[in-house]
Design brief:
seven-stranded mixed sheet, 7 strands, ph1033 like fold, alpha+beta, 4 helices, single chain
Length: about 140
């Protein structure tokens, strides 16, 4: 099991939750091929929409577990089936920034989130989800 951060506008996250899938980088295949069954994706949403004038969120907005064959839906956008966890709130990046080990330069943290998908360690995963899900869900990953 691997842990990932997927960078996606929140309106697209909501579509993925509703339809039970994930896609990254406008449907590119390469990010999806890195995922495995049972991997966990935490979504970071810079904004509500891709439009640069939309509401800034700068936070973690959803958590999902990869299921099924990877990828599915070619020749259209590359997608993977995802079962989403129930979250109780979004988590603003500044609420955990100082404690995230994958962010080495705290002043220039946003550079990392220019990628569509990147792997993180379990320690950082646990820190993020502890602030987003109920205790019973959190304990499933300890």
């Amino acid at each position: 099991m691997k842990f990932w951060i997927g960078v996606v506008s929140n309106d697209h996250v909501k579509i993925g939750i509703k339809e039970g899938f994930a896609q990254f980088g406008h449907g590119k295949l390469s990010p999806i091929k890195r995922l495995g069954n049972g991997d966990i994706i935490i979504y970071y949403s810079p904004r509500e929409e891709m439009n640069v004038k939309s509401l800034a969120i700068k936070g973690f907005t959803a958590i999902g577990v990869v299921e099924g064959k990877i990828p599915y839906n070619p020749p259209g956008p590359a997608r993977v089936k995802v079962k989403y966890l129930k979250t109780k709130k979004y988590l603003h990046i500044h609420d955990v920034l100082d404690n995230l080990t994958f962010i080495k330069n705290k002043k220039r943290w946003g550079i990392l989130f220019r990628r569509s998908l990147f792997e993180i360690n379990k320690q950082d995963f646990m820190l993020i989800i502890k602030n987003m899900v109920d205790e019973e869900i959190y304990k499933q990953f300890e």
